[in-house]
Amino acid sequence: MLTISHIPFIIVIILYFVSSVWAVGSIKRPFSFNKRVVKWCMMMGFFIHSGFLVFLGLESNSIPITNVYESFISLLWCILFVYINLDYLYKLPSLDAFLLPVITALSIWTLTFDNGNLFITIPLQKFWLIAHIIPIFIGYATFTISFSLSVMYLTQQRQLKHKLFGPLFSKLPSLEGIDTLMWKTISFGFPLLTLGLIFGVFWVKTQNILGEMWYLDYKVILGLATWLIYAALLHMRLVASFHGTKIACLTIAGFCFVLFTFIGTFFMGSKHAFQTVDEQSHTEILNIPMTR
Fold it and tell me: How far apart are CA 193 and CA 188, in angstroms?
């Protein structure tokens, strides 16, 4: 149920939606859809998104990942943050037309998870937990961008295969350029994912939150599987010299696995996930003093 507290995020979704429409439209009809609208709406949405994230953090007295809703909002912010910086460094042409619709769709999906009682059931004011979450979220953000680049690659490949040399073809980078960007984003995100998983192991062992059989927890298993998928991608690129279509398809599959790892474990009854608890119990969890 939507409430007044959702208004800032709904405004963010509207701005992301407008920027998505204009980003796609600027490829088909550049004279009707000004590219400046894309940047303006996206940056306005990002600033409001940032402010809303700060509000959620102050409200929960923690980093805003205390429930599924907050975690999705934090992940979406990370995706935009990474994209804005990569765009500044590499001038990613037309990637916004592929990435912003994904962000918009995920933002709308995020609203469905705010039912008010899905909370994380472990103390958040822990050094290892914070060190575990931040690298993984940024890693997931770069994998989202690599997913969008993969879709862009397959789209451009189709244009070449069927000799569709229209406005879309001229707006997209070369296949070699897209392939290089895919490689850079995956090679940037993989070490962060690795670091986050290592810190996660330290955290689980020091806090003993999953018991002695922690390595059999669904989220731990899926997290390792996600790591293996991207490790295989890097191995194929470096050792087997795979490029192009195979890497693009595997990157798309890897992103689907990222989404399932991020939210699917809730439906599998993982201890390392969000569970239904009452507000009082959740408040007591958040008020546990920080320890290192």
Answer: 9
Give this prediction's pTM.
0.86
Catalogue the long-range contacts made by 167-175 (C-beta closer than 8 Å, 24 or more residues apart).
167/27, 167/28, 167/30, 168/27, 168/28, 171/27, 171/93, 171/94, 171/97, 172/93, 172/94, 173/93, 173/94, 175/244
Q: What span, in angstroms and rounded, lies between the C-alpha atoms of 211 and 269?
A: 15
Residue 70, both tokens: 């907050």
Low-confidence winner among 75-89, 93-107, 275-289 (lowest mean pLDDT): 275-289
Is residue 58 helix, strand or coil?
A: helix
Which of 67-71, 146-150, 152-156 shows the lowest per-residue confidence on average (mean pLDDT)? 67-71
Six token digits for residue 272: 């390392």
Residue type, position 1, single letter: M
Q: What is the DSSP string of 223-250?
A: HHHHHHHHHHHHHHHHTS---THHHHHH
Q: How far apart are CA 7 and CA 37, in angstroms?
A: 22
- Cβ pair 181, 149 in contact under 8 A: yes
Q: How far is CA 280 from CA 126, 190, 290, in A?
A: 20, 38, 19
Give the integer Cα–Cα distance in Å for 80 and 97. 13
